[in-house]
Amino acid sequence: MYIDRLERYWIYAVAGTLGVFSAALLASVFIFGVTLPSPVGRVDPMQLDSTEFATPGLRSMGDNQYTLHVVAKMWQFDLGQAKGKPAEIHIPKGAEVTFVVTSKDVTHGFYIEHHDMNMMLLPGQIAREKATFKKPGTYHIICHEYCGSGHQNMIATIIVDA
Amino acid sequence: MQVASPLPQRQPSSLAFPKLAMLMEERTLVGAHVLTGMLALLLGSLMGPFQTFRRSPFVKEAFPDLQIPFFSFYYQALTIHGVMNALFFTTFFIVGFTYFITQRSLERPLWNRTLAWVSYAMMFVGLALVLFAIGSGQASVLYTFYPSLVAHPTFYIGLVLLVVGSWLVGANVFMTYAAWRKEHPGERVPLAVFAAIANFIMWIVATFGVAVEVLFMLLPLSLGWLKTTDPQMGRVLFWFFGHPLVYFWLIPAYISWYTMLPKQVGSKLFSDGLARVAFLMLVIFSVPVGVHHLFSDPGVSSVMKGIHTVFTFVVAVPSFLTAFNIGATLERAGRQRGARRALDWLWHQDFGNPVVAAQLAGMILFIAGGFSGIIQASLTLNIALHNTSWVPGHFHMTLAGAVTLTYIGIAYWIVPLIRNRALWSKKVALAQIYTWLVGMLIFGHGMGAAGIAGVPRRTDLSNAPYVNPDAAFFLNTSAISGVILLISLVLLLVNLVGTLFFSKEPVTEGAPVDTVGPAGSPLWLERWGLWVGIILVLAAVAWLPVVADALGTFASPGYTPFVPNPLK
Description:
The complex is a heterodimer.
Chain A (H helix, E strand, L loop, with lengths): L4 H26 L26 E6 L2 E9 L2 E3 L9 E5 L2 E9 L4 E5 L5 E4 L5 E7 L3 E6 L12 E7 L1
Parallel strand pairs in A: 2-5, 4-10
Antiparallel strand pairs in A: 1-2, 2-3, 5-8, 6-7, 6-9, 9-10
Chain B lengths: L23 H31 L2 H6 L11 H33 L6 H23 L17 H31 L7 H33 L4 E2 L1 H34 L7 H14 L16 H35 L17 H24 L12 H30 L6 H27 L19 H31 L25 H23 L5 E2 L11
Antiparallel strand pairs in B: 1-2
């Protein structure tokens, strides 16, 4: 098949560019350690009370490290807050938090503003990712997948104390 | 006395099509599909601007009681918007366009006209059922209908009818080609039909995923035959289908760019061979990429996410090939129009002809759409963007930009042919195209920037307790684009109604359809069995591990969008 000279150069340039993109991705994973949610375990969404999700909330693991268990449900994040209280936690500056999250009912999302934290929450699947909060301030956890008529209300707050 | 013919008598299989009109059977069949598609587009798109208004902090303050026409519930309107535009407009329009180019290029009637009407009836009943389900408020589950949200059974039955109807369309097109091939051994099939066949092969492979999801998971759950489901498996099956779906929309636009635009601008396609390679690459590599929609899913391994990222880069190659091929074709046209310097052919184009202008405007949007797509497909960058408003910003550049504008450009010559009357107003058509272009550019930019600021997609922000203040400006510019796009939509409606009912002039432009393939393209490109084999092998390699990972949990009961308690 006849391929014009300039067109061939174009193909090389495209292949080269995509090669550079791929290399950048490999670097982001292996040099900078960016991770994506991947399978860490499953739960029965109807039996959460007999699992680690029975009592959601923040647990200190020492050395400014925390684990936060969250149960997403229509239409709130359960961070262990008392009934009628806002879904809100305080952590100290520099805290490294491991989020362990699942959904009790339908598909939800778990997105934290200004952080590399973006997980789908599916009933039956446990999602786990780490984030470090270096700057004091208020950060919102936003449900970013449509989950029914109250979806837009599904927001929680992380306050990083100075 | 009549002399006996020395040749054996054969059924006349070739048809002479008039250049500036349609045969009655074309008018009814092509017309029914194209006009049903345009109706779905008008209904679906009408919802769009009102959503931008509802998401704008300025509008919320100024008009707190603003409602979306027909659908006061935001997510019901969003479901109509997605289902009508993405599923019904595209499918009906593609089928009508495919019938037209298949018959015209091969100069023969469809293999089976009765079957064509049966498939139309199935898809139309599907449309009616889905409209009933969503309109009655029982299917506000968006066009991705992820379990474990459950819609009324008529929603799923309607989708099944649409998909099965489209399979029959594919069979009809394949059989027409097979009959042509029998009578034309050794000839190259015209490029448009080559691409249409490739498109329906991909479609049938891809819809297998969503058919399994709907028939074996969602419909039985909705009917109460199954008590539980698995959302991760649902998403895997949906996105097996969901990415080839976007190429199913794109390929007919490419057919227009590759086989019609060159003649519409008075040029010649730069390379037919690489055009065929581009179509084949699109079809082959559109299947092993769908996991890039699942980068944030906890039930899919990172290795598979990486593999699908690489294939996504590969499937970008045919679009780069297209950029060169169509670019070179347009350069030739620009030079003929007097362009002399290196890049001035870019603006020496026929921007005053609606059919050409619509496609050029679509290409401009596609540049933004293509690059934003490559950014999203980069698995680690995706963390910052997944499910933010960046994503609809991206696919409004591709689907609502390149694809829809090209389809509108096609409508500007095919609707006159259907009606046998000239386009009602070229000026209105040009105004429609350029308002659409400007509106979509503003919209895409606003949604993209708001997404980077962290605004979620598919969210009724007017009722949300918190919206990132950094995004307010971009949400407001999106609302401005909504006004522009609403005007564009009205102009489109006016011109279609004008052409169908009030145009007096005769048609002056025919359809630029090739009836022979160029002799230079290698015949091995038409070894369909080989391509189907490769698609199936790649699909198996890329998806079986994902399916195996997702298998196992089937413990989630169904929910309606309104009550946080499981369905009984």
